[in-house]
Specification:
Layout: H1 3-27, H2 32-42, H3 48-51, H4 59-72, H5 76-102, H6 106-116, H7 119-123, H8 131-153, H9 158-178, H10 183-196, H11 203-218, H12 232-253, H13 271-283, H14 287-290, H15 295-318, H16 327-353, H17 366-380, H18 383-402, H19 418-427, E1 437-439, H20 444-453, E2 473-476, H21 482-486, E3 489-494, E4 501-505
Helix pairs in contact: 1-5, 1-6, 2-20, 4-5, 5-6, 5-8, 6-17, 6-18, 8-9, 8-16, 9-10, 9-12, 10-12, 10-16, 13-15, 15-16, 15-17, 16-17, 17-18
């Protein structure tokens, strides 16, 4: 396939993904965490964003959600618009990264597919949470780092190179400001980048060194130096000073000082459970696959891939001398160290302060970083190993594509039918008095969102008080279905995706 054809194929593919993301943003029901953000930070005074800390406050993203809903009104799409834009940013960055590492051939298409079809990642390129923006910032920062090395090797002017350093600093800072879970990988990548910066050389510098030897032998005078390259220390400063300045602004503006250890509770108790969860969230995303008899074998492959790809990439990258490293080598080095270094820091944080190990969204960066490490490894492997690695990436991309989903988010699948359930209540017979609703606690934020958004004055505010007392409606999540039988309720709507039920008092239909 010609280079131009590959690029156009990639652009059409990514445009299709973005269109599907927009469709999901407009049609999928609001979910628990989105509605909770609306309750706490969007429905009340804007000052709450800067004064009250909760793990739900993904600071930079929350500000953008506030701006979007102020401009376009309160709706699912308006809340999710900042994430959609971040998703477009990530998809474009994925194209630039894969092109920079492998050129515009067919292998680029494999890398893009494996990197962007991850179903869990696609969820967070739609949902009104900070994870999508954080991932976009992290990978854009990584692209700027690699682009700096590429342009440095080609001898571009120092002014252009400084801009790359500033952009890399901005990307890492956006990642952390959008979601604190990105602090660890961003920190590891930033430290490694500062270590690598002084080692960078240019093709021009090598050429000038050879010319200097020639001039010395011929005793000709040296031409006057017209440009002086920045020192390694200066490069580090041009990257680290903006990072430090943006960090100060973030900690002054965000209510981080109000955070407590108990606020960071999402995660698993063991490293093994975390690894299994991260693999299952991407490679056994659908309910059918999670319940399939071959799930263990498939998860075994996923876990080996997550462990082996970064380890192999790191070994190969470290065998290259600094002066001989290509962009693929640097991509291998940075991504593999980001995965392995983040894992090591998380283990240390767990043992020192009891921080839970990452779970699905809190470890969202691991799978795409491992995937990119494998893709970069393919670019530097022998012909046989290159074919093997690309074949594995094709399997990964195909597995992701087989889990295609446009109706729910994995983490909040119980809310997939909440909007339709609310619409069913609106059409159902009601008493003249304000209706009371008994609901599973996980459904309370989304039900209250629709109550306000749809101006449903006929319904009293939904509370987390269970199912006791007289209620006109009952919205029951899958785990609470026993209440249907105990209270003798009649189901009038069953959510096909979520398993959530809408019921009313009365004998069950036969």
């Amino acid at each position: 396939m010609k280079k131009s054809a590959c690029r156009w194929t990639a652009l059409v593919f990514l445009a299709g993904l973005l269109a599907v993301n927009c469709y999901r943003a407009a049609t999928q029901s609001i979910v628990h965490d989105e509605a909770l953000t609306w309750q706490i930070y969007l429905a009340g005074p804007a000052s709450t964003i800067f004064q009250y800390y909760d793990a739900n406050n993904h600071f930079l993203a929350t500000i953008l959600f506030r701006i979007s809903t102020a401009l376009f009104g309160v709706s699912e799409f308006a809340m999710r618009l900042p994430t959609l834009l971040a998703g477009a940013w990530f998809l474009w960055t994925a194209l630039r990264l894969c092109t920079l590492i492998a050129g515009e051939g067919w292998s680029m298409l494999i890398g893009i597919a494996a990197l962007t079809l991850n179903p869990l990642l696609l969820d967070f390129l739609v949902a009104a949470r900070g994870y999508g923006l954080a991932i976009a910032g992290l990978f854009w920062g990584l692209y700027q780092m690699l682009a700096w090395f590429d342009e440095r090797a080609r001898g571009l002017p120092e002014g252009e190179l400084r801009k790359r350093l500033w952009k890399a600093a901005l990307g890492m800072s956006i990642a952390v400001a959008a979601n604190l879970t990105m602090l660890i990988p961003a920190f590891v990548m930033a430290v490694l980048f500062c270590v690598l910066l002084p080692q960078a050389t240019t093709k021009q510098a090598i050429s000038e060194a050879a010319s200097a030897k020639t001039r010395k032998k011929s005793n000709k005078p040296k031409p006057r130096e017209t440009r002086r390259a920045s020192s390694g220390a200066a490069r580090v400063l041009h990257f680290s000073v903006p990072v430090a300045a943006l960090a100060v602004i973030f900690f002054l503006a965000a209510p981080i000082d109000a955070a407590r250890a108990g606020d960071f509770y999402v995660g698993t108790a063991t490293a093994r459970a975390s690894l299994e969860n991260l693999a299952a969230s991407s490679f056994a995303y659908t309910e059918a696959l999670r319940n399939h008899a071959g799930r263990g074998l498939w998860l075994g492959f996923a876990i080996v891939f997550l462990l082996a790809a970064p380890a192999a990439a790191l070994i190969v990258a470290l065998r290259r001398r600094a002066a001989e490293r290509t962009i693929a080598d640097l991509a291998m080095l940075i991504t593999s160290v980001a995965v392995i270094g983040s894992a090591a820091l998380l283990v240390a944080a767990h043992w020192v302060v009891g921080l839970p190990y990452p779970q699905d969204r809190t470890g969202l960066y691991f799978v795409p970083l491992a995937t990119l490490a494998a893709f970069a490894l393919a670019g530097r492997a022998t012909v046989l190993w290159r074919k093997i690695i690309l074949a594995i990436l094709i399997v990964v991309a195909a597995a992701f594509a087989a889990e295609w989903n446009t109706s729910s988010f994995l983490v909040w699948r119980y809310d997939a039918d909440t909007k339709r359930i609310f619409e069913t209540m609106e059409k159902s017979p009601r008493t003249a008095t304000q209706a009371l609703l008994g609901a599973s606690w996980v459904l309370e934020p989304s039900l209250n969102f629709y109550r306000v958004q749809r101006r449903a004055d006929w319904l009293a505010q939904v509370r987390r008080d269970g199912f006791g007392g007289a209620r006109q409606f009952y919205v029951v999540a899958r785990d609470d279905r026993g209440v249907i039988r105990r209270r003798g309720l009649r189901v009038i709507y069953a959510g096909l995706v979520s398993g959530t039920l809408l019921a009313v008092p009365g004998a069950p239909s036969q």
